[in-house]
Structures are given as structure tokens and as C-alpha cells.
Specification:
Elements (H helix, E strand, L loop, with lengths): L3 H14 L3 E3 H6 L4 H9 L4 E4 L2 E3 L8 H10 L4 E2 L1 H7 L12 E5 L9 E5 L8 E4 L2 E4 L1 H9 L4 H13 L5 H10 L6 H8 L11 H12 L6 E6 L2 E7 L4 E6 L7 H16 L3 E6 H6 L1 H14 L20
Helix pairs in contact: 5-6, 6-7, 6-8, 8-9
Length: 319
């Protein structure tokens, strides 16, 4: 199987299931002659990504770099750590090309574009596939991330995993018990046992506000939940206090201003206190914001029976 027609068949089959990526070893095993492979590489019809790993076409498929990294590292290699977190959408995309994190079970030499993590064993229940790419499970991904991320980044990732139904506390605790001395285990365990909902924020302004709450040692609110049909930024459920954080682009139009005021009026009529905080206030007078918030929490009464409040499915703080 060394002719051009045979090569096209082999390339097509491999590229279809591997995001447009093939390896020299795969082609040779399929019966393609080495000189044919070399000619395709020399003429640019097979484009090297890593040594012995090629892109079989002019375009880069969405998962091509992750698949190429796994293929370059050999059998048993899987995408892990931050790269796995971004595939599972536990961390936001950065828009910057970073090395692909790959976990292997043997010693692997350094390769440009790949960040290798070596483990003695990777049990089968900690590995799965994402769109055909070998990858650590969401629970194992969180554990790996705990060893390389800060506490807030880890909390955001855990919150996304929880709200999307990818990981629950039982799974996470079982994995922690399996690796009691692993780096990051303590940080992840502290989040799981904290007794408060994990905080998920969707903007820099919301993140700034949550940091202010933590600095003031106030009880953490629920984040991005639905109240009477409206999604709100932060909610103190018992106190019936809602905080909306207005970022840089707040009130870009009169229509947006009026819409938000109608929304605040509806929530107010139903017994909720709505506090709006701007980026400028948090930046220039954070202490005043914190004092006002603490006073409102202290003055707020207990919720009335039958409060009409709901959460979107999958977004509840159920851990």
C-alpha cells in the first residue's frame, strides 16, 4: 500500500478521526512507504507539528494541537491540567497559544509546544475522551489544576464544573482520598468543605466585587443565580439582598438604563433590596462600598414565607 491513491485513503481515515493530524508511525504501519511520506513532507503536503507528527491539510482543526501533543508523546498520553481545563470549559480561553499540558506514565523528553507531566500511574477511571482527544476526566482535571493554580482560579473552575454537572462532591472527595499527599489536595479539599457555594463570576467587575467581599470577611453570596425570572450577579438569600455590579460598558444605551431600572423596580416590589455598585466606586472608594454593603446586610430582615426564587438547572450551589 504505497501508491498515491492508497496514501490518500489512509490519510483520510486517520485525519477524520484525529482532527486532521497523523503520525509517521501510523502511516508506516498502514503500509505507506517511507519515501512517500518523506516526499509529502518535503513538498509541504504533510506539515510537521512535532517530530513525526503532521497536519494533513492546510487548515488547523479546533482540537488539532491537543491531539498532536498526545500523539507526539505516545501511547497512554492524555491532555491534562490547564489544557484539559480549557477543553472542559472550566477555565476561559486566553486567546494566546500556550504549551499543551500532557500527562504521561513514563519519562518523556521535552518538546516545544508541550508541557509534560509525569505520573507513575493513571487509573482508567481518571481518563476519558473529549471529541476523540484522550483527556483526564473533569474530576482528575480539577485535582491536577489544584497543583498549579491559585485559590480563586481553582474556585472558579470548580464552580463551573459544578454548575455544568461535570463533577460533584462525592467524585471529588473520592479522588482526594486516593491522593492524600498530592500537591493541591489541601486547597481543593478546603473549597469542598468550606460550607458555602462556590463563587462563579463572569466579568472582571464581578471578580473585583467578590474580592472586596472576601476582604471585608463578609459571608459569601451566591453568584449568577435566577431570582423571579431575572439572573442577578450576587444574592444574599436570607437577607433578600441583590447586588448588581456594573462594569466598564454599563448603560451603553438609554434602553439598557431603562431596562435595568424596570428590573430593579420589579425585584423591589417583590421584597428584594437591590444595590448597584459601579467599577468606579470599587476602584476609588472600596471602603465606602464595603461599609454600605455591611449595613444593608445588617438591616435586612429574614425572608418571608413562599419567596418566589428559583435557580437555573445546573447552576445551583449543590456541592
Amino acid at each position: 500500500m504505497s501508491g498515491p491513491a492508497s496514501l490518500e485513503v489512509v490519510l483520510g481515515e486517520l485525519a477524520e478521526r484525529q482532527h486532521g493530524v497523523v503520525t509517521r508511525a501510523q502511516l508506516l504501519r498502514a503500509g505507506v512507504a517511507a519515501r512517500v511520506v518523506d516526499h509529502r513532507v518535503a513538498t509541504g503536503r504533510l506539515r510537521p507539528i512535532h517530530r513525526g507528527v503532521y497536519r494533513a491539510g492546510p487548515l488547523v482543526a479546533p482540537r488539532a494541537l491537543e491531539m498532536a501533543a498526545v500523539l507526539a508523546c505516545g501511547d497512554g498520553a492524555v491532555v491534562s491540567h490547564r489544557s484539559a481545563s480549557r477543553l472542559w470549559e472550566l477555565l476561559p480561553a486566553t486567546g494566546v497559544r500556550e504549551p499543551v499540558d500532557v500527562t504521561v506514565r513514563y519519562r518523556e523528553r521535552r518538546r516545544p509546544g508541550i508541557r509534560v507531566h509525569r505520573v507513575r500511574a493513571l487509573p482508567p477511571d481518571e481518563v476519558t475522551r473529549f471529541e476523540g482527544v484522550p483527556i483526564t476526566t473533569p474530576a482528575r482535571t480539577l485535582l491536577d489544576l489544584a497543583g498549579v493554580a491559585g485559590v480563586r482560579e481553582l474556585e472558579r473552575a470548580a464552580a463551573r464544573a459544578e454548575r455544568r454537572g461535570l463533577v460533584d462532591r462525592a467524585q471529588a472527595r473520592a479522588l482526594l482520598a486516593r491522593y492524600p499527599r498530592r500537591q493541591g489536595t489541601g486547597a481543593l479539599a478546603a473549597l469542598l468543605d468550606g460550607g458555602t457555594p462556590l463563587a462563579l463570576t463572569r466579568s472582571e467587575a464581578e471578580e473585583r466585587f467578590l474580592g472586596l467581599v472576601r476582604k471585608g470577611q463578609l459571608r459569601l453570596p451566591e453568584a449568577n443565580v435566577v431570582v423571579d425570572g431575572y439572573e442577578v450577579d450576587f444574592l444574599w438569600r436570607t437577607e433578600r439582598l441583590i447586588v448588581e455590579v456594573d462594569g466598564f460598558a454599563y448603560h451603553a444605551s438609554p434602553q439598557a438604563f431603562e431596562r435595568d431600572r424596570r428590573r430593579d423596580a420589579v425585584l423591589g416590589a417583590r421584597g428584594f433590596h437591590v444595590l448597584r455598585v459601579t467599577w468606579k466606586q470599587m476602584d476609588r472608594e472600596p471602603e465606602a462600598v464595603l461599609v454600605r454593603l455591611a449595613q444593608m446586610l445588617a438591616r435586612a430582615g429574614d425572608p418571608e414565607p413562599g419567596e418566589a426564587m428559583s435557580r437555573r438547572p445546573g447552576r445551583a450551589g449543590s456541592w
